[in-house]
Structures are given as structure tokens and as C-alpha cells.
Amino acid sequence: MKIHKDRFEILDGLRGFAALYVVIHHARLVCWESYNTGYLKHPNLYNHFDKACLYFFSIFKYGSEAVTLFFVLSGLVIHYKQSHNIQELSSEYKFNVAKYLQNRIRRIFPPLLFSILLMILLANISYFLFQQAYPDNLSVKTILANLTFITTPFFSVAGNNFPLWSLRVEWWIYLVYPFLLLINRQKIYLGYLLVAITSIILYFLNFNRQYFWIETLLFLPTWCIGAYVADVLSERIKWFKILNIFIVLLPICLILQGKYDNFISDFMFGIGLLPVFIFLLSESNFYCKNILNKFIGYFKWVSPFSYTLYIIHFPIQSFIVSIYKRYYHDQLPHNFYLAFIGILVSVLVAYASHFYTEKKFMARRS
């Protein structure tokens, strides 16, 4: 089945939801004193509104799962066009590697460059206002390492922008994808089997997982879940109804969150997402599906600047916190107003800048 325009709007809504979720998740971690070190020590300082915010923000504790949603979405969107063309054109299909890489570069690098320039600007403002030392992880070597995605274990992420780790993984997956597509085109199941076997071997051999190439291959199966959904939707894979039993992994993996390492937990959650994506993108007309799609659609306004929002929000929130702690004896607030400020400023800056970091370079969907 071909994904119609309204189906792509569902993906846009999911992308916007995931980006906003991660921003709120980090705001509750960065801009607030935390549950264990704050609330449990002095609950009497929390009024009814603060306690209501406490329970509201607890909904956003699954930041890692939101990043997994990004990985699966990426695999789906990147592979769907190719999978559909293979199904429709068969032997006449040709994959333009140069155009593919050009589209990935246009998508990835403008917001990344902006995020690094923003971090340098915030560091200089901090130095000018408070005479704080210029951070070592904004050195020329570190910035170049982040621009080439050669970071851990050789260099840290630029500034304190920890979300860049997932961007590094995704970039190297982009470079691996043309080889996977070559196999996928000839033997559709062989590609998925090779990815699974390679990841299992690397996982149990227990190499240093900080090496970016090991990390990439361990996260590759999660990304391939989205590619698998694309093959189902393009009808290159016919049998998939049995996969609906995996939907039980969604609540199970949330309950078991933190019990396993990131690779297993993310893959489990991705498998749980697989039937959900197929259900949401299918042409079936169920009442619950329509309600869910309508809810997801409320977040599509975030989608055009979701990538910029994702890679600039953490430095912005950290900068806001550094100013606050400077004037409040290095303490974080016990209420959530600073978190709301961090969320609002992040969204406003991302929206204002995306016209130059995303929209200008993404005139057409790639």
C-alpha cells in the first residue's frame, strides 16, 4: 500500500511529539531539583500546584524511548521511498547514492552547525557575564570531531549537548544503509538476518561499546525495525499480522525500563512499536485508530523544526540553569517554573531558526 499524504502527516505528528517529549524530559531533569534530591527531602515546600506539576512531569520520564521512536521513524521514512520504488519499478529501479547522500547532508548539517555556533555564543556570553572558563569540549578538535561524527571514545560531544550522541549513531547508519539496501533489494530477509547476527555477535563479544562503529551496529537493528515497517507498507513483505502479538512489549518494556542496557531495551521497545506503526499507517478505519491519529496530529506543528529543537534545546536549558544557579547559591528550584521557561525558550528559538536551518534546505521531502 502506498502511504498517502495524510499518512505522512501521522509521521510528522509522531516526529513532533517525540521531539517535544524529549525537550520536556530534559527540562524536568535539568531545570528542577529532582524527586530524590529535592521533593523527598522537603515535600512541605511544595504547594498543590507544585505537586500537580510533579505528577504531570513524571509522565515524561521515558526520554530514551522517545529517542527510540526517532530511530524507528528514521528507518521507516528513509527506506519507504526506496522500498516502494523497488516494488513498483522492479528491475528498472535505480538507487542514486549521490542524491541520497546530498539529501542527508542537507538535512543533517545546517542545524548541526547552528547548534555548535549557538553553544559557542552561549559560552562566550557566560564568560562575559560570569567569567566562567571556556569549556574544553568546545575546542576546535572537539568541534571538528562532532562535525565528522567521530567522537566517543576519542572526543566528547560538543559543549554539553548530550543529545548529539543519537545524531552520531544515525549518521553512521545513513552511511551503512546503501549497502543494506543492495542486499535488501535482492534478498529482503537476508539483510535483516545479517544485521541481527552481526549485532548479536558484537553484543556478546562485549567489545568496547563506546567506539562509534560498534555503537552504530548495536543500534542498527532498532533502526531496521522502521525499515521493516516500510517493507510491510510497500507490500514487499506480505505476512505481518502475527507481529501484532508484539504490541504487548510496549507496556512490558516500559515496566522493565532500566533493567537492561540501552541496546536491548531500545530494541524491545522498537519491536513493540512495529505493529503500532503498521496499525496507524494502515488503511483500516477503526474508531480508536482515528482518535489516536487525531491526537498525534496535534503535534505536527512541531515537525518542521523538530530536528533543530532536538539538537539545540539542551544547551539552551543548561544556559538558563547556569544563570539561575549563579544568583541562587548554586541551587535548583523546587518548583517547575524554570522548566517551563526552558521548554518555552527552546521551542521559540528552534522555531525562529528553523527557517534558516531546516526549511531553506528541505524544499522537498527527501
Structural class: mainly alpha
Rounded Rg: 21 Å
| Number of strand segments | 0
Largest sheet: none
The H-and-E topology, N to C, reads as HHHHHHHHHHHHHH
| DSSP helical segment count | 14
In whole angstroms, the N-to-C terminal distance is: 19 Å
How many domains make up the 3D coordinates?
Answer: 1
What is the average per-residue confidence, as pLDDT, rounded to a whole number?
Answer: 85
Helix content estimate: 55-70%
Molecular structure report:
- α5 (97-130) packs across α14.
- The protein starts with a helix and ends in a 7-residue tail after the last helix.
- The protein is globular, with a radius of gyration of 21 Å.
- It is built from 14 helices and no strands.
- It has 366 residues and is an all-alpha fold.
- It has one domain.
In short:
With 366 residues, the protein is an all-alpha fold.
Fold topology:
Blueprint: H1 5-30, H2 35-39, H3 48-57, H4 63-89, H5 97-130, H6 140-147, H7 164-186, H8 188-205, H9 212-233, H10 249-255, H11 262-281, H12 287-297, H13 306-327, H14 337-359
Keywords:
mainly alpha, 70% helix, 366 residues, 14 helices
